[in-house]
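Ops channel
N.P.: pipeline sanity check, posting one input/output pair.
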């Protein structure tokens, strides 16, 4: 056997560990992150040590036949303990530290027992894939095999029931993660059960070693895959949800940014567009650009136009939020036109014509005039910006201030 499946599984697990390692370095005292990294690291180590080429290399380099066996068993035992500790940390509670301490001490004793029994036993013939059944009747070695298998079966059974029982009490990504973790532990139970059955068959004089060499590795691989996915799902789902929300908000603000695009470009108010950035970063970039533009337009915002538009839409729809959004859409669009009027006038004068929107007979350099009424209050917040963009997306304002959705009135606008 070339151990390809083992090495691929180990690589995937350790790749996940590398992804989580920076978080662990930043939060060294976070026991939850420590448990996650321990599960990933030990699961990968189990596959690495269990690969037949690795077994042969360890035995050859150490000069001790079958030394790889107790090392692999110790790694499996450590993985079992880490999985149970993860469940305990995940769930929390007032007695978490005490429970973790008991599990850790119990499985440390199992690892010590594995080492002592291997040292007392005699296993001179190297067995890379079927050591469990080959030495099932050898004193001390048989006890070592049963010890690690029973410890493994106990841990995965407790993990299965704990994860699935808790999964019924929660929702969302946590429920999916717990369900997968419980399913992975159940597959792990299949691993140790198959090996125990093969060992028991050996005790009765039958040769069922295929259970330990084919069924058990398949169950272990599937269990490790489900466990890793179950561990990562609760970590990934909130981030993916946040990215989806940020992406939708980014797209939603597009109509508002397009209204402000000329101003942002002409006044160099837009920050450089981030490349290869997350949706949250792109959203922040767009929001910053919009706020920069609104800050520049502050002196051009017309309070009278705002009040008239808001009153008209509110009377027609009885929706305060829609009325406020329509009023802001109107004053922002008009402010953009007012702010751009001098530049257009200069451009028209250079071309010998009248600026767009200028009154007949007006001088090319005429000021657009000051907005009427007192200044408006603070700039709209993120939620209000989205509603303003919705108004602009449904009924983009005309240059003559028609910034209200169709079917509403704009009493007093002229």
């Amino acid at each position: 056997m070339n151990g390809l499946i083992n090495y691929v599984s180990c690589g995937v697990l350790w790749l996940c560990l590398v992804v989580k390692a920076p978080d662990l370095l930043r939060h060294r005292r976070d026991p939850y992150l420590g448990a996650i990294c321990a599960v990933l690291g030990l699961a990968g180590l189990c596959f690495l040590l269990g690969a037949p080429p690795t077994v042969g290399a360890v035995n050859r380099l150490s000069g001790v036949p079958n030394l790889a066996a107790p090392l692999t068993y110790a790694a499996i035992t450590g993985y079992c303990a880490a999985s149970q500790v993860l469940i305990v940390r995940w769930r929390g509670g007032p007695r978490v530290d005490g429970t973790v301490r008991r599990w850790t001490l119990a499985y440390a004793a199992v690892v010590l027992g594995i080492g002592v029994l291997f040292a007392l036993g005699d296993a001179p013939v190297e067995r890379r894939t079927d050591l469990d059944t080959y030495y099932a009747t050898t004193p001390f070695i048989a006890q070592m095999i049963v010890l690690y298998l029973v410890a493994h079966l106990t841990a995965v059974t407790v993990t299965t029931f704990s994860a699935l029982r808790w999964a019924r009490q929660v929702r969302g990504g946590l429920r999916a993660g717990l369900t997968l973790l419980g399913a992975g532990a159940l597959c792990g139970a299949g691993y140790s059960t198959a090996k125990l059955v093969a060992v028991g068959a050996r005790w009765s004089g039958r040769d069922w070693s295929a259970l330990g060499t084919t069924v058990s590795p398949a169950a272990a691989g599937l269990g490790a895959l489900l466990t890793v996915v179950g561990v990562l799902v609760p970590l990934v789902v909130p981030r993916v949800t946040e990215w989806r929300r940020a992406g939708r908000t980014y797209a939603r603000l597009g109509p508002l940014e397009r209204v402000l695009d000329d101003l942002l470009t002409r006044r160099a108010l837009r920050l450089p567009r981030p490349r290869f950035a997350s949706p949250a970063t792109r959203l922040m970039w767009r929001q910053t650009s919009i706020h920069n533009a609104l800050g520049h337009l502050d002196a051009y915002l017309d309070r009278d136009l705002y009040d008239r538009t808001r009153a008209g839409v509110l009377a027609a729809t009885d929706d305060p939020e829609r009325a406020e959004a329509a009023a802001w859409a109107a004053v922002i669009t008009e402010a953009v036109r007012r702010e751009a009027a001098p530049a257009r006038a200069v451009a028209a004068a250079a071309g010998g014509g009248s600026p767009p929107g200028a009154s007949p007979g007006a001088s090319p350099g005429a000021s657009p005039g000051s907005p009427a009424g007192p200044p408006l209050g603070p700039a709209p917040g993120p939620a209000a910006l989205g509603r303003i963009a919705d108004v602009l997306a449904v009924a983009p304002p005309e240059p003559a201030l028609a910034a209200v959705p169709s079917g509403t009135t704009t009493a007093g606008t002229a």
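N.P.: looks fine end to end. The first helix runs from residue 4 to 26.
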